[in-house]
Structures are given as C-alpha cells and as structure tokens.
Amino acid sequence: MRRDLEHLARAAGDIAERAAAAILAVYESDFAVEHKDDRSPLTAADLAAHRVIVDGLRALTPDLPVLSEESSDIAWSERREWSRYWLVDPLDGTREFVKRNGEFTVNIALVDDHRPVLGVVQVPVGGDLACAWEGGGAWLSVRGEKARHLGTRRRASPLVVAGSRSHGSEHETQLLARLGPCAKLPLGSSLKFIRIAAAEADLYLRLGPTSEWDTAAGQCVLEQAGGAVLDFAGEPFRYNTRESLLNPDFFAVGDRAADWSALLARP
What we know:
- The protein is an alpha+beta fold.
- The N and C termini lie far apart (43 Å).
- It has helices at residues 2-27, 44-60, 76-79, 94-99, 170-177, 191-197, 212-224, 261-264, and strands at residues 34-35, 41-42, 66-68, 84-92, 105-112, 115-122, 129-133, 137-141, 148-149, 159-164, 182-187, 203-206, 228-231, 250-253.
- The model has no long low-confidence stretch (mean pLDDT 94).
- It folds into 2 domains: 1-149, Fructose-1,6-Bisphosphatase, Chain A, domain 1 (2-Layer Sandwich), CATH 3.30.540; 159-264, 3-Layer(aba) Sandwich (D-Maltodextrin-Binding Protein, domain 2), CATH 3.40.190.
- Helix 6 (191-197) packs parallel to helix 7.
- The strands form 4 sheets. A 7-stranded mixed β-sheet has the order 3-4-5-6-7-8-9, sandwiched between helices.
C-alpha cells in the first residue's frame, strides 16, 4: 500500500507541475476574470489546470473518479458510493492569482475511506512542491535543491499564526486573543498548511466557508509532517461524508500535543 501511494504521489506531483506550467502561461498574459455564482473569481488558468490534472489522473488511474472544483456538480447519489477518489483544486487562491502576488497553489489529494492519504501542493511561482503520503512522511522540493523532510515544531511563543490575505473576521481576532501573544503571517491558498508543516508557523484558524478541495491536500501534508487539521469538536477532517462539499470552521496546528482547548471552548 505504501509503495503504491509513493508511486501515485510522485506521478501526481508530475501532473501538478504540468498544471503549474499551464497556469503560468496565463499568469504571464493579459487574462480576463469571470465570476462564479458565489462571486468567487474564475480565470482561464483555473480551467487550463483543471484539464491538465483531470486528463493526467484519468490516464494514471482510470478506475478512480476525480472531483475537481471546476467539475464539482456530481450528484450525491453517485458520489456517496465512492470509497477512493481524487480531490482537486486546480488553482487554489485565484484571488491571489488575480492580484499577481504569487501566493497560489495546485492541490491534488487522494481520499481513501474519507481520509486524505496522499497530498500534493505545488506552488507555480517559484516551483516549490510539497508531497506526502500515508506512512511516507511529508517532503518539500525547492527548485535546484534536494527534497527535504518536513516536520512540525513545538508550539512557539509568541504563536506564529498563518492567516488568509483575503479572509478574516473580528471573531477570529477574539479567538486568537485567548492564546496569548501572536505574530501574524499573512499567506494565500494552501501555503498556510505548508508553512506549518515546515515548522515556520504554529496555527491556521479558519472561520468561514471553504470547500473540501481547499483543504484535503494540505491536510495530508500537514498530518504526515506531524500536525493536524481539526474541526471545533476537536475531530480530524473527513471528506465526502455528506451532500454538501463545504467544510465546517477549522484550525490547523503543528503541535498536536499542545493545549488548544482555548479554541475549542467557543461561545
């Protein structure tokens, strides 16, 4: 099983890098921005990466279904029968893409029995590639360097909190105040999970809507590095358990052994 996952992870990493090339071709042009029904942005880069990834995964594993943000209208009656499938965000952080700040990623996860057992997070600008699979640890490849093993750190003081550049709330500020001194690290997309996995941050708190394809790959990388992604009942995230593909509020931590009960005691 582990060797099978390692093979799939490496192949998914190659597919993510091909998708990144398609994204960068649009990034370097004068691209148009459309909006979906929920007002989230959509560009030609999202669609180009989607096609590269879906075609690549179907060639790699013809028997496994693919659920992508750009083809998510699959009936629950069909999806509920899936035990193993690919979960994809072709371009996580489209708002950051539109801002041209480089903080967007390609996310590919393999979900098995509701858990992400393989995760790939590729950063098109710069070329960093985080890759993890169950039992194999988490690894980060930086262009021109040998891949290094990722491992989280013990909770630091002040707490380094990776947070969204495009989302935030007063409630989030109130919750963080319970944890003592905090240093903010604003980041877009799944980079927040990677920074925690790389022992550069301690916490990512997210209140508000995200979708399952936003978190699965990053969750796998963080878990295999020693961290966790938890809902506010203190339970690890699970996938494809209901009709809605929206996530509940959550927090991601590097130090699983630390006391995070101040977050769990929400009013």
